[in-house]
Every structure is written in structure tokens, then in C-alpha cells.
Amino acid sequence: MSDMTTTITRTPTGSEAAAFRRGSGRSVDDRVLDQLHTWWRTANYLSVGQIYLLDNPLLRRPLTRDDVKPRLLGHWGTTPGLNFVYAHLNRVIQERDLDTLYVTGPGHGGPGMVANAYLDGTYSEVYPGISQTEDGVRKLFRQFSFPGGIPSHAAPETPGSIHEGGELGYALSHAYGAAFDNPGLLVAAVVGDGEAETGPLATSWHSNKFMDPLHDGVVLPILHLNGYKIANPTVLARIPEDELLALMRGYGHTPYVVSGGFDGEDPRAVHARMAATLDRVLDHIADIKEQAGAGTLDGRPAWPMIILRTPKGWTCPPEIDGKPAEGNWRAHQVPLANARDTEEHLHVLEGWLRSYRPEELFDDAGAPVALATALAPEGDRRMSANPVANGGLLKRDLVLPNFRDHAVEVPTHGGSVNESTRVLGEWLAEVVRLNPDSFRIFGPDETASNRLSAVLEVTDKQWDAEYLPSDEHLARAGRVMEMLSEHQCQGWLEGYLLTGRHGLFTSYEAFIHIVDSMLNQHAKWLKVSKTIPWRRPIASLNYLLSSHVWRQDHNGLSHQDPGFIDHVVNKKPDVVRVYLPFDANTLLSTYDHCLRSVDYVNVVVAGKQPTFNWLSMDEAIAHMTRGLGIFEWAGNELPGEEPDVVLACAGDVPTLETLAAVSILQDEVPDLRVRVVNVVDLMRLVSEGEHPHGLSDAEYDAVFTTDKPVVFAYHGYPWLIHRLTYRRHGHANLHVRGYKEEGTTTTPFDMVMLNDMDRFHLVIDVLDRVPGLGSRYAGLRQRMQDARVAARAYTRAHGEDAPDVADWTWTDGDTATHDATSVRSANVGVGAAAAASAATGGDNE
Amino acid sequence: MSDMTTTITRTPTGSEAAAFRRGSGRSVDDRVLDQLHTWWRTANYLSVGQIYLLDNPLLRRPLTRDDVKPRLLGHWGTTPGLNFVYAHLNRVIQERDLDTLYVTGPGHGGPGMVANAYLDGTYSEVYPGISQTEDGVRKLFRQFSFPGGIPSHAAPETPGSIHEGGELGYALSHAYGAAFDNPGLLVAAVVGDGEAETGPLATSWHSNKFMDPLHDGVVLPILHLNGYKIANPTVLARIPEDELLALMRGYGHTPYVVSGGFDGEDPRAVHARMAATLDRVLDHIADIKEQAGAGTLDGRPAWPMIILRTPKGWTCPPEIDGKPAEGNWRAHQVPLANARDTEEHLHVLEGWLRSYRPEELFDDAGAPVALATALAPEGDRRMSANPVANGGLLKRDLVLPNFRDHAVEVPTHGGSVNESTRVLGEWLAEVVRLNPDSFRIFGPDETASNRLSAVLEVTDKQWDAEYLPSDEHLARAGRVMEMLSEHQCQGWLEGYLLTGRHGLFTSYEAFIHIVDSMLNQHAKWLKVSKTIPWRRPIASLNYLLSSHVWRQDHNGLSHQDPGFIDHVVNKKPDVVRVYLPFDANTLLSTYDHCLRSVDYVNVVVAGKQPTFNWLSMDEAIAHMTRGLGIFEWAGNELPGEEPDVVLACAGDVPTLETLAAVSILQDEVPDLRVRVVNVVDLMRLVSEGEHPHGLSDAEYDAVFTTDKPVVFAYHGYPWLIHRLTYRRHGHANLHVRGYKEEGTTTTPFDMVMLNDMDRFHLVIDVLDRVPGLGSRYAGLRQRMQDARVAARAYTRAHGEDAPDVADWTWTDGDTATHDATSVRSANVGVGAAAAASAATGGDNE
Predict the structure, then answer these.
(1) Nearest residue on chain B to A327, judged by CA atoms?
(2) Which CATH architecture has domain B14-23+31-385?
(3) Which of A122, A261, B460, B470 is least surrounded by Cβ atoms within 10 Å, i.e. has the fewest?
(4) pTM value?
(5) Which residues form the signal peptide (chains A, B) (predicted)?
């Protein structure tokens, strides 16, 4: 495989206006129709060949059973349509010098994508072993969906593709994500009519209300109605045409319809209609772009889209074994599934292959003839070679402001209080300012709710629908993208990252599960891309989950679920990272790291509520660099000796409760030697052989000891900590408190108590686990139980946490002064700060 | 709390035609307008009171700071709209004797739902402590979003609700699910304009193509445009009216628009318009239903829907602190967030509350006056008391055919081969036949692909869009629901179950993650419902995941993810079950159990590919009853002695590979005492204190031993087995093989080799773990390595598994005859059977 960077550079599209020009106005002549039809025939032949043939690739001898693959895998049904569109786009790219990305919703039409990349020459450039010779065609066919070869779907291995498409629904959101900030780019996005039934696709049509006609590119949706899914008709193919047109107009589009190929219609007639329609559509786009450039656009344009109706599996045999094939759901996958079993079936296959007249399509050496490739654009104008589809080639590092400049003052540990995400928001505002065309923030409606509002001081929320005078922070162009669809946010961001830009997605921890499956697909894409030399690293996919499980006072049980971390950790370790920063400075340091990273999925869970600042910036950086470490200032172990107990914590609320527990222990059990460990990079817990961030066993043992009790307060489901550490020494001594599915509450401490992760219960856990302590401190144990009962009773009576809980503060230094039931007047308690924060009205969610 | 069963019975709706009758044709008079407006004012007052008041509920003295809750939680913005619709539905229910279920997409409008249930009397019936007295109102207010009280959203605690609605997107799919097979039921479904932006909601409008106007009920969508989300305008409120109408027509609806309440318009005028529109809409519905009954419907009806535009937070103060409140996003949650902090704010709140004139709404005792409740229907015609919303009340057990009658012959263990799901399909066909109006099968497009096609011999796929002559198994009425949207399938099924019926959802294992978040919400609903005496158990939510991770030959990496099991296991243990049946008889036995169960989520993973039948039906029932057990016929341990090693397995492919490994071991290491354990009910592994299905430690030890090596071949991610067993004795000896994110392959055995879960590697695992064996059998170890290399090389050369692998069979009895590299001619190998199956063409996916 060659390195695409050495052969392909991006041809500039020039000014935005110049990128989209009107066509010649001439209709296509017979010569061009020949070119279109020949490209299409050749691509179809190459597609069928991939599905069926092991050998005899150009049919230069009669087909035999041994020429056919024993296991027939792949999807034919959508492929001729994808090839058809590809051919026609080639023509207009040549004529108008268009910079075009091809997004295929029906990614399972993999053979077509490979065939087109082969025809335009890209395939042989990136995979020199697959040359344009008969031997190259043989290898091209054999590798398809074959052990050790390439997948049957469009995949990272496929030049020109930015997504896999096996899981349907994201074609348009990926397309729009690619178009943002690419004003000269045309993204032609084929939507299958099966895919169109999915929820994510159904709402993604509304992306046009979030496009800026001036600064963003153009998405041209092509709704390809071939009428069938696996075994059923599709909804949009079976509603009256007026309903379908109304639907597309309702989505804000101007629909153009091309229909043909049915009842044996000559494909050349369909080519002529498609070419004429595409010319009208591109002229329409050029007009809109021109008006946008001139500032004469009157409101949101009704962008064109194409409805293309062609038969499913177009050009395969009309009937096989007496049952309809072409134009029927039976053509979805492998229409002739048993090609090797009888001579008759073998003849059907041979007849099908020969119907494309391969002898006219390839020269003696096996290379496609000139007529077959006449439509191929030059260089990176070829859709399979467009560097936009290999975004890492175009990615520039972000200009990042020094996050240290945004550090909060931490006079003593816990000696000040901030809303961490509000601090982060100020830094992010600078990131936005410094990277005006390569960084966006996506979220369902939570930028303000998550206290990132500083960002809106330097940019707006992009919006191309109606405005009212009372609107705030909405504009045609802006860096913040808010639509109440996690699918859209994720899909847009993926498309934006895959084409070489940067961003983050902020959402509720519980509802980020909505995109579990999308995360799967993206993580798999990253995993495979890392093994493909010509795929360049892209910016990481960064989550910021700020409305987290422990602070769902407004929303209760339905909003409590920390399992996204578990879901992510199931992915290949070298593409996932999970961070649990616990205060403003650690959050800043974490996010600086995330925005510099590539090819990861970074999950950052960090509360938006006021909380103590535990670490100065220098301490935060040192802690983040280690990923986990001992809070020496919080423990009281003696130099050179192991502690009696380790209190570990991960997450903001667990850290708070752990330190509160430590303060009680140091008051009440002053001779107990306590070590406090905080884990901010969860993957550090894993053994080093299993994750790149994993600690060595020696390092782990040095922190956690091998035989002392460890009481671990964890943000999420407790068993994840067990899972991550089960190969570690001392695992039997590890006792984890975390979230269990126990029920709703409406005050934060109630919630913590319900899960036995509160300070009082952590003290009890220590008493119960350090040998001999339980009997010596039976009275303390009882007082801790009483404190819990009292705290709960207070919430039931007053509707808020008891002051002794809410206003607890940490004091550095003299441990003897710790008193769990008195307010430390030296510092500001979190409770008071929360009340002050609520008064700002920024707490809507 | 009283038991709803004792107070509420369902009033029959009579014949389908009679259920929807045309109205009187008279417009509403002033008296009715008074009733509408007074209900609405009262419901609004009760809603605001819940959000704000701790005491002084009827404002019978001036409001003081202590009357106001210290923490203000809840969502006002959507609430007046929900109350408005509720009042108007009451009127038409009374007039037309309608059987009506109210589904609220904006479930966070919880105070409104509670207020209406209180007003119509239902609330005090199910919660007698909340009486219709001043003290009752005080308690009603205080409990709302208060520690120990009720959640801020509609919830299981809310009478009349079938869903929580905190996670938006599922209102319409739940509504349609409720309407299926309820021909006399009107489901009024409010869709918020925020919710309308979600993907699942955007596609759920198309549910009308899957409704049978004759045998199903009617869904009346009410798109409530209040214009704003948390901090943004909504898309559908900001597109031109003609686009919005086109969109609704494109979705196949007849839209009716009601708009009002803006710029201080008198609400009575809006009441008049809404009443008139609702009458037209219900007459339209009555006409459609009449035509359906008469058989005169011409194609799919364009069912009416209502677009209702009212101000967000309607009737709250127009401005608060100089910023717009009513009609603005600021009214989303608590418009006056700091009501206690100043006298001025307290006065704003008091003025707002008094604007409803509570002194006119409640009598001296504190009960709502007659005018306020005049619109309440009687008994179970009240929407909050409709037993459809407490589906367990209506649930009848399924009539289940004897699954033993569908048993496959198993002459010897592994002595026959079947596609398990095809066998299940024959039994399910009987289930369908015997339960013609209470059982449905839902799936994205996979009933045939998953080989349940026998079902289509007795029923059809329900479809109310256009038909073509070539269509098969489509009909206006049918028990199979196929739309390419996992969200829709899940939402429909949830709605169907929540209203007292039964069903199952069949899908791809990898893509069921699409509904992770929906599963969360449903599981939480079940968990809480179990604690509410008046909520009756509903049928379990049953999954059948047949295109599983190990058999993605067609699709590769993107279709490989067994993590749904992990996700489900994170839920509260008493609502989840995971089954891994490994052959036809165990699958039959499993599904019989699942369809009899209530209040669970049952995840059944069972392959559709041909595989050996390992157990006779008697053995299968015994094994399923235990949930896990020793395959005595497969091991060679001596009576009264523990084995040298335990080979455990869970899942169909792991079971096959484990038995193949055992056959090698028995041939090659005949003195090794092997025990084979199979786990079919995954929850049996958990300690009995943690899951109702958990084995006691003594039972676990008796099966797995406490100190022998256990080599466990598991269907999913291996760490789940560690997690489930980490408290067990002998956990340190447990070695799990399972799926890791390693990459795509295209033959089944390649896939198991890639994950080191193949027979040869399991043998190596045993050699490496039984003390002394590795050195004694170094030669065997090398041969196993060589066998793997050879097997992989064969796939690379031929594109299919090597015959010695594919055609391996098990032979009971004489262990000396086992030979891993020869074909057992006595039995049919899986490879041959798979080839035969492929030849049937039933393998499309």
C-alpha cells in the first residue's frame, strides 16, 4: 500500500462563489451518454464480479464451478444505484470542477464503492497490488468479503468513504458534518429508502436549518428509492408521490424526481434524465451560493434534493428459479445464492456477467478501456481520492490557549469553590476564538445548562430558521450546534471530525446511551483505520458529560445511568479513554489533553455544580500526568510505612465524600494511618498489558498496597472497578461503593446515602475492614449510622440537605481540628455556593 | 394507597363503530367554556403549587418565605399546554363516551399530570392520603419533587401514565403500541416540539402506515408547539406554516391548526377554537372508523392530527426581573428560580398564584368546586383511571401451545442438526394462531432473515401503504410489525406491553444497542412499578437476538458487538434475565418460560444458523429449570471424585467449540477427568444475595469446584463472566474466552480462532492450566497450534472453513473413537447443513 499523502494533495476550490458555477446549459450528447453508460456497466460488472468470482475475472473462458466463491457474501441490491449516481457525479465534477465528497448511506453496497474507486484509479494507487490488469481484477474480486480480504461493506479500507454504513441512519448527519466550514464542498449523500425509515435519518433532514449558505458547503441528498429492504417494501417507496413531495418540501427541500429502469426501460434514457436533472439541481445550487455570496438570500434557501427511483438490484436477472429478482427484495443481498450447485445456476450467473459485455470494457491487459474511465476526474477531484474523506490529511492542530491562564485560585486544598464547567467554558471560548473555522461544540440543548455560556460571548448558535426579536445568541454562522437529537449531534460531530476538524459533544450522562450504537461504529472505524497506512489520524471524539448521575435533583431516576463508561470500556482499549476530573483545574488540564489527542474516544464526566477546588493548577497538571495518584495532603501516613487503609475515589462527588470521610476519620481515629488515592484516568487501573494507559503492577502496588483494605468510592457502577482491577494484587481487599439502580431522590446527599457512598458510610466501611477497628470504635460506628438517619430525616423535613452536610469544608493542616458536624467558617461550603448558583438562574435543564 | 383493581373496572366500548361517534354538531356554549377554563385554571394552579409551595396551599393567608420550598424543581413550561389538552379531552370524552388514553411526550410536565389526576378524583382514590381537602392539597404540593415524595416527571407513580417521558422521543411509538388491537381506543398523544426534533419521534409519524383502521384504535397526535426547548427555539416552531403543513401531509396526516394565547389573548377565545377543532377532528375520525367498519375505506386514511400553538409557560408572569418569561425559553423549568430570596420575588410568586383566583376554585374544605371538576368523566372513562394505562389489570395470560410438541428429535447428543430459530418459529406460529389479538412480533426487517418464517404461514406483516401484485405476506391486519427502525419496534412493543398485551422483538445483537437508552427507561419503569401496589404486573419485554456476534459472515466487524448483555446486566437485577439457549429444544423451553413471565426484560441470544441439537426435550427442560448444569454425557469424571478440569460454556458457538475441544481431549488425554458445564441462564452465576436467580455458593462450588481450573467459553465480552463470579470461590482459577474487539472475518471458525475461543485453543488452555499437563503433552500442544495455522490457511485459500472443522461431529459413548480430524459419517455435520440452508435462499440479512 502506498501512502496517500505522497500522491494526493487537495486542489483548492478557490472562492466560495467560484466553487459552484452554473453549467453550460447544453444537454448531454450521445458521446457523454456512452461514457456514462459504459462507466456504469463497468462498475456493475466489477461489483457482481466481487460478489461471485474467485477466478476467471474477465470471463475470458467459460465460467466453471471453481471460478465461483464457495461462500457468497455481499449486497447487490443497492449497488447499481450507487454506481449510477457515482457515474453521473463524475460527469458534473469534470464539467464544473466540483470538489465533491460522496457519502453512501447504504454502506453495505461495498462492492460498488470499491468498483468505482478502482475505475477512477484511486484503488490501485493506494493498493498497488490491485493493479489495472487482469491479475489485478482477479485480486480485486477474490479479496472481497473473503478471509483475510476486505469487508463486504464500505469500510475504512475503502478509499473515499467516511463511514461504514452497515448500521443505517447517519448518512445525512455525516454529510452535514462534513459540509460545515467547507464552503466550497459539495457533499452528495445517498440515502437508502430502508435507511430513511430509521429515526436518526428521519430527523437529519432538518439539518438544513443548521447550515450557513455562505460559510458552509452544500449537501445534496439523493433519496434512492429502490423500493425494498431485506424482505419488505419500504415506506417512502409506497406512499403517493404527492405525499412524498410534500414530505420533502416539509423538510425544507426542493425535490427533483428521476425515475426509470422499470419494465425493461433502456438505461440510456434514464441516464439522459438523470444528467438533465443533475444539471438543473447544480444550477439551482450555484444560484443559491451566488446569492449567499452577494448577501441577497431571502431567508433559508429550499436546497434541492433528488428523489431517484430505480429497480432494486437493477440489471440482475429479472427472475431466478421462477421468482422475481430484479426490482424485488430478493435482490437485496446475493440474488443467485446457490450459483455453484447446478449447471443451470452457473449459466444464469455467466449470462448475468456477460450481459455487461466485459469484452468491451477491458483491454487485452485487463485494464478498463478509455470509454469506461473517460468520466474519471483528475487527481483529488476523484471522489475516491478526495482528501476530505481521509480527514487526517487535512487536519491542522488546534491553536490552544494556555489553559494555565484559566486556572482557579486554590489557596488551600478545597479552599475555594467553582462550577468546573463554567471555568472550562471560559477556556473553550478562547479555543473558539482562536480556531474560527475548525472547532465546533455540539449538544442537544445544553451548552448553557452545562454552564459553558462563556462560549456564547464569542460566538453564537448556528441557526437558519425563523428569528424572533427576543432571540439571543442565534446567528446564521456560529460555532455552537444545538438540536434536540443526540443522534444528530453525534453524527454531525463524527462527520466534522472524519473530514479533519475538531469538536466536542456535551450531553447528559444518562442520555448519551442514545448514541451507544453510533459510538460503537465510530470506535470500530478508528480501530481499523489505525491499521491502514494511508488513513491519517483524525481528532478524537470528545464527550463532556456534565449532568451526571449524582446530581439529578431535578430529574430523578430516569436521568440516572452511569453506564456509558461501561459501554465505552468494552471497545478496543487503544481507542478509548475515560476521565473523571473532579474540579476546575483538573477539568481544564483534562480537556487540553483531549483536544490535542487523535484517534481516541475521550469520555469526560465532570459535574457542573459548584464544588471544591482541590488542586492548584500545578498539582492538577502533575496529577493528570500520572492519571492517578496519592493525595499526600489529605492522608496521614508515616514516611516509609504503608498506611492502614487506602481510601480511593474517582469522580467529583466520590472525591468530595471521600475527603469528608477522611476528615471524620482523622478527627475520630487519629492513630489510623490513611492514604487517599484519586483516579482521574480510569484506564490507569487496567494492567499495562491490556491498555496503553495501564499502570505496571509494581506502580499499582505502590499506590494501592498489596494487602491493605481499599475502600473505593466510584462515580459509576461499582463492578467496573472490579473488572478493571481483577488481575491486580490485593483485589480481594478492594471494596467499591458506586451507583446502583436504587431509586430517585431529590437532594444530592440523599442520593449518595441511598448508594452507601456517603462520608458516614465510607467511615463505616473503613471501620468494618481494618482489622480490629470495628470493635474498638463501635461507638463511632453507631454515631455514623445515627448521622445518616439524621441527615435523611432532615431532607424529608426540609427538602434540602442538612447544613452540616452541605456546608462541610476541608481544612488543610491540623487534622485535630476536623469536625464533621460543624461548619468551617474559613471556607465557603458547597451548599451555599449551590444556592448562589441557583439564584443565577443558570440551572435550567 | 388503595388497590386500583378494587375500584376500577373497564367500561366496555362496545363495537368498534360505536366507539367513535360523531358529535352533536353544536358549538360549545358559555357554560362549557366556563367549565373548560375553570378546569384549566385549577389544574394550572395545582401545578404551580406543586413546584413552589411547602405550605399555605390555598393562599388563605399571605404568602411567606417559609411557605416556599427551599429547592425549586420541576418543569413549568410544557405544563399549561398539557393541562389545556386534558381539559378539552375531558369534554369530548363526556360528550362522546370516548375510551381515551392520554400519552404525554413531554413527561417532564409531571405537575400537570398529577394535577389533572387529582382533579378528576383518581389521585385520591389510589392515594387516599392525598384527599380533596386543604390538607390533601398541602400534601400534594409538598410531595412533589421532594425527598421521599414523587418524581418531577410523569412516572409510574402517576395514574394514567404509561411512560416517564424524561427521555424524549417515544410518545408516538408508545401511543401506536397502545392502540394496536384496541379498536375502540382513542390515544391522544401530545408531542412536544422539543421532542419532535429527536430521531425516534421524527420517524414515528410514519406509524400510520402500520395501523389497521378496522382492528386497531386511533392515535390522535397533538403537536404542541410552545416554541422552545431548554434554551433554544425549536425547529418545527420556526419553519413557515406551509412547510409545517406540508411536513404533516407528507407524513400522511390531515393537519388541523389551533393557535392562541399570544400577546395576551383571552384564553377563553382559545378554548372556543380548540373545542371547535377537536369536534371536527373527532367527527373526521368517526367518519374514517365508520368507513373502515363498512369496508368502504379507499386506501390508507389521512388520519387527522392537531397542531397546537400556545405560549411556553402560558399564564406565568410575562416578565421576571426584566426578562421575558411567559412565551420564552426561560419558562422551561422554574421561571422564578429564586422565589424566596427577596420580598419582591415572593410577591411575584404570590401574584402569579393568585392570578388563578384560587378562592374561586376550592370550597371551604379545600376541595375543588363543582365547576372546576364538571368536566371529569365517570369511572374509568377518566384518563387518569383508564385501566389501559395500568395494563397489568387487563393482561390475560397467553394461550401457549405445548412446546414439547415442537421438540426436535435428538437420537444422540449432537445427533441431529437444526436451525433453532426455525423450530421456534413453528411454535411461535401456534402462539400467534391461539392469541389472535394479544400477541405481536416486532422487528426491523428480520422475521424471515431470523428464520421465523413459519409465523408468516399463519399471519401477515401489517401494512397500510401501497401494495404491488408481487407483495407477499403483507396485509392490512397482521401480527408481524416490521419497520426499519429499532426505536419504533421497541417503542411499539413497549406501548403494547404497557397496555396489557404480549410480544417479542427480534433483532441483530449488535444493533440492539440502538435502543440501549429505551431499555434503560423501560427497566426503570418496571423496577419502580413493582413497588407501587396499584400497578399490576405486565408481560415481560422479550428480545430474540439471532444474528449474533459469532456469525456475522456477511457483515463483519460493524455487526459484531455482544455488549447489550452487559448493558442489560447493569440494570436492577430483579428486572433482567439473560438466556443463552444453544439448540432448538433449549430455545423452545426458554421462550415458553419468557412468554409466561411478567415484569422482566428477557434477553435471549440464540443463533439462527444450523447447529447440533445437544439435548432431548426432557433433558432441555431439566437443564433450563436448573439454568446451568453439568453435561454428564460429555464428561468423563469418576463417581465421587472431582474432575481435573471444568470446561464451561455459555452460548451456541461456545458450546459447540467446547464439546469439540472435549472430544479432542478425550481422544488425546484419556486419563484427564473432564467436566463439562453449560450455563444457559447467565444470572445463575451471580451470588444468590445479588440476584433472584443466583446460585448459592454451595451449589456453585458443587458445579464449578473450588480449586480446579475452569476454562469458560463465553458468548460475549469475557469480563462479564468475571464480574458475575468475582465473589465466588475459585474465581482465581477461572479463565474466560470470549469476544474481543479484534476484527472482521468471513468464516465462522476464523472468527472463533481470532478470539482464541476455538476448540484447538481451548485444548491449549486446558493443557496450560491443569498442573503438569503442559509438559506431558507438549506434542499435543504443538499439534493444536498447527491445527489452527492449517485451519486459517484453509480459509485463506478456499474462502470457507476446512472440512475437518466444519464437518466435525460429536459421538456419544466410546470416547476412544473421538478423532478431531476425521468426519463422523454417522451424523450430519454443521458445515453440510449450513450449505444446505444457504441453498434455500433463506439467508438474506
Answers:
(1) B470
(2) 3-Layer(aba) Sandwich (3.40)
(3) B470
(4) 0.95
(5) none
Query: Is A730 within 8 Å of chain B by CB?
Result: no
Q: Give the confidence band of B551 by pLDDT, cuts at 50, 70, 90.
A: confident
Of the candidates A698, A723, A716, A802, the residue with the CA atom closest to the CA atom of residue A759: A802
β-strand partners of A309? A225, A259
Looking at residue A245, the DSSP 8-state letter turns out to be H
pLDDT of res. B731: 87
Confirm if A660 and A820 have CB atoms less than 8 A apart. Answer: yes
**Domain ranges in chain B?**
14-23+31-385, 403-610, 627-801
CA–CA gap between residue A672 and residue B567 (Å, rounded):
39
- Catalogue the E-assigned strands of A321-479: 323-324, 417-419, 439-443, 461-462, 474-475
pLDDT digits (tens, 9 = 90+) for B574-585: 899 999 999 999
Query: How many of the other CB atoms lie within 10 Å of CB of B99?
Result: 25
ipTM, two decimals, is 0.95
B185 φ, ψ (degrees, to nearest 5): -95, 135
**Res. A820: pLDDT tops 50:** no
Distance, in Å, from the CA atom of A76 to the CA atom of A26, rounded to the nearest integer, reads: 34
Residue B357 confidence (pLDDT): 98
% of chain B residues with pLDDT over 70:
94
Q: What is the pLDDT of residues B97-117, one digit of tens each?
A: 999 999 999 888 999 999 999
Q: What is the DSSP letter of A579?
A: E
| pLDDT surpasses 50 at B476 | yes
- Name residue, grid cell 440551572: A843
Lowest mean pLDDT among A532-546, B205-219, B446-460, B587-601: B446-460
Chain A CB within 8 Å of residue B146 CB: yes
- What are the phi and psi torsion angles at A759 (to 5°)? -55, -45
Of the candidates A548, A557, A567, A758, which has an alpha carbon nearest to the alpha carbon of residue B575?
A557
Among the partner-chain residues B470, B521, B726, the one whose CB lies closest to the CB of A328 is: B470
Q: Check pLDDT > 90 for residue B828.
A: no
**Type of residue numbered B62:** P
List alpha helices for A226-266, DSSP H: 241-250
SS3 B428: helix
- What topology is assigned to B627-801 in CATH? Rossmann fold (3.40.50)
Give phi and psi for B403, each to the nearest 5.
Answer: -65, -20
Say whether pLDDT at A844 is over 80.
no
Q: Do B176 and B533 meet the contact criterion of CB atoms below 8 Å apart?
A: no
Mean pLDDT over the full length of chain A = 92
In DSSP terms, B419 is beta-bridged to B610
Mutate: best of A230, A547, A569, partner B, most B CBs <10 A = A230
- Position B6 scores a pLDDT of 37
Evaluate whether A811 touches A827 at the Cβ level (below 8 Å). Answer: yes
Judge: B516–A511 Cβ closer than 8 Å, yes or no.
no
Which residues between 189 and 208 in chain A have a beta carbon less than 8 angstroms from any beta carbon of chain B? 194-195, 197-204, 206
Phi/psi at B598 (5° precision): -130, 150
Of B21-25, B219-223, B531-535, the poorest mean pLDDT is in B21-25
Q: Are B302 and B253 in contact (CB under 8 A)?
A: yes
CATH code: domain B403-610 is 3.40.50.970
Question: Which band of pLDDT confidence, cut at 50, 70 and 90, is reported for residue A577?
Answer: very high
* Lookup result for grid cell 457483515: B555
From chain B residues 58-117, the ones with a CB under 8 A of any chain A CB are 69-74, 108
Question: What is the Rg, in whole angstroms, of the alpha carbon atoms belonging to chain A?
Answer: 31
pLDDT at B743: 67
Domains A403-610 and A627-801 share a fold: yes
Averaged pLDDT, B687-705:
92
Average pLDDT, integer, range A568-574: 89
